[in-house]
Amino acid sequence: MTLSPSPTAALEKLPVSKIDRVDLVTVKLPFVSPFGTSVYVWTDKEAMLMRLESAGVLAWSECVSDPDPFYFYETNGTARHIIKDFLLPLVEPGIALGEIEARFRHVRFFVMDTATTENGLLNMIATQKGMPLHELLGRPAKKIMSGISIGLKETQADLLAAVENAVAKKYHRVKMKIKKGQDVEWVRAVRDRFRDLRLMVDANGDYSLTDIDHLKELDAFDLMMIEQPLSYNDIFQHAALQKEMKTAICLDESIHSLDDAAAAIALGACRIINIKQGRVGGLMESMRIASYCAGRGIDVWSGGMDETGIGRAVNIHLQTAEGFTLPGDTSETSNYFDEDIVEPGVFLDRDGFIDIPEGRGIGVKVVPERIIKRAVRMERLR
Ligand code: OSB
Ligand code: MG
After folding, report:
1. Which residues are bridge partners to 30 per DSSP?
2. 330 pocket-lining for ligand 1 (C-beta < 6 Å)
3. Which whole number is the average pLDDT over 163-189?
4. Confidence class for position 5, pLDDT limits 50, 70, 90
5. Which residue of 59, 65, 82, 256 pairs with 113 in a disulfide if CB–CB is 3.0 to 4.6 A?
């Protein structure tokens, strides 16, 4: 197999400065309405934020773990432990990002914590250089496509109202959550009403191969893809399912690295990959996966973890990278929060596109009063 030039070669050479101070700040933001998936219903976002300070320059980063292990095995509690006791001590002044990644590889599996730390360092470097993050990543600015993830609703009328709202805002595609017993008829209701909508579904692993005939009924609705129909832990069975289904399978939970993506593609387990930078260890691994997929006809898009504006800004910058061919889970701030902790928030323009926040680093500014208002825990690590 020929390998295309690494999209991160230049980034790996960048040295990090002395980080004088590191704090973890956990904030809790109420959702405007509960967000339901096949596994759990969240009523607020409890996000652990990392604040880095170097010679008076500030850079923030967001860990995408939840307080619970219902989407992923990490929690804000395990993330704090791994960052504090294992990752941060490996970050020494003057060493290059590639060396930091190599050191982080000794810490097995904790991709969300690796991502938090690495993304914070990238934001710091871009801020110090006075350039936007996408420029540090070597990517030109562009308008970012939008997409919304609609959680499970109590009634089909509620679902149709939410889709109607998304269509009116000009979202480039709509994702609806499904689960066993709330799938085919709910998709049919949406498709009957919105014939041309770019529509997809996400099952968060609720089905097994014994449901194959039922899942195949979804082939009738011209869906862009079905996201993670089978177990969060599986690649092999998805390959069997993809052979039987017309609709493209997209993997989310199963993919934690470039190696996982390569295995999934080689097995024919999916035709699309949802890249959540936090779930694959950060921006650099995300770029590697996206470039790898681009060379093999596999579409990728940026997933979301209903992040605060810090994580959202990172996802927005990432989507300038090679290979991000499809709209991601990047919705307006108001879809989740009455008030976010950053300015500016995310808005769609009249064609449904999102502007990259302007300025150094991730671009958005953290509003200190809002952090204080929402903080549930603060801890200085260094
Ligand atoms: O499966 O993509 C998912 C949110 C939390 C956990 C898992 C998922 C999601 C979403 C929300 O679908 C996407 C977003 O708006 O950030
Ligand atoms: Mg998903």
Report:
1. 44
2. no
3. 98
4. confident
5. 82
CA of 177 to the centre of ligand 1 (A): 9
The DSSP result for 55-69, as a single string, is TTEEEEEEE--BSSS
Ligand 1 atom showing the smallest separation from residue 253 Cα: 1
Q: Which atom of ligand 1 is nearest to the CA of 335?
A: 15
Q: Give the residue, by CA position, lying nearest to ligand 1 atom 8.
A: 305
Residue 247 backbone dihedrals phi, psi, to 5 degrees: -65, 140
Radius of gyration of the CA atoms of the chain, in A: 20
Distance of CA 337 to the CA centre of its chain: 17
Q: Which two tokens stand for residue 65?
A: 């773990």
Per-residue model confidence as pLDDT tens digits over 199-216: 999 999 999 999 999 999
Give tens-digit pLDDT for 297-336.
999 999 999 999 999 999 999 999 999 999 999 999 999 9
User: Looking at the annotation, which residues are catalytic?
Assistant: 177, 276
Q: Please work out whether the CB of residue 303 comes within 6 Å of at least one atom of ligand 1.
A: yes
Q: Report CA torsion sign: 142, 277, 150, 199.
A: positive
**Ligand 1 centroid vs 71 CA: distance in angstroms?**
9
pLDDT above 90 covers a percentage of the chain that reads 99
Residue 289 CA: distances (Å) to CA of 74, 134, 231, 265: 21, 17, 21, 11
Peptide bond into 357 cis (omega under 30): no
Q: Is 66 in the pocket of ligand 1 (CB under 6 A)?
A: no
Q: What is the DSSP letter of 149?
A: E
Nearest ligand, measured from the Cα of 331: 1
Average pLDDT, the chain: 97
CA atoms within 13 A on the CB side of 164: 9
pTM of the entire predicted model:
0.97
**Helix H or strand E encompassing 29:** strand 21-36
Q: Is 377 left (phi over 0), alpha (psi -120 to 50) or beta?
A: beta
Taking the CA of 311 as reference, the closest ligand is: 1
